[in-house]
Specification:
The chain is α+β, with helices and mostly antiparallel strands.
């Protein structure tokens, strides 16, 4: 059991690092989606189990993250973006979860905004920081 926990933590760390290094939403989607294991429930919910231990439930009126990981936060954002389009998203949960979501939303090309002004400022800050880091990295080549 201890080995399984260590393996899951290593996988969680690998996916988080890959998401942080992703240049844009397309690359990040590839990272997360290749590790999905969806299951459709009788009530219509789609439950996504991620290899990093994340768990996301796509329900009729909301997307719920029941096991928070970087991959789960990003998947929830992409599902919500696909479903709700350009409408600002309302994010509920712990402050740690809200920070995680804002961090993942800063990936270029994701196309989400938040109804909460504080989360939206955080998303824009992360997006600007990522863009500057990518620009500096490209300038070194």
């Amino acid at each position: 059991a201890l080995r399984t926990l260590r393996d899951r933590q290593r996988q969680r760390d690998r996916i988080e690092a890959a998401l942080l290094a992703a240049v844009d939403a397309g690359e990040a989607r590839h990272i997360v989606y290749q590790h999905l294991r969806p299951a459709i429930r009788r009530d219509g919910r789609v439950i996504y189990r991620l290899s990093d231990g994340g768990l996301v439930s796509d329900e009729s009126r909301q997307v719920r993250v029941t096991q928070v990981t970087a991959g789960a936060a990003f998947l929830a954002l992409t599902l919500a973006s696909d479903r709700f389009g350009a409408r600002p998203l309302k994010v509920e949960g712990t402050e740690a979860f809200r920070r995680e979501v804002a961090e993942r939303a800063g990936i270029a090309g994701l196309g989400v905004t938040f109804a909460d002004a504080g989360l939206e400022r955080q998303r824009r800050t992360v997006m600007a920081t990522r863009a500057n880091a990518i620009d500096r990295g490209m300038g070194r080549d």
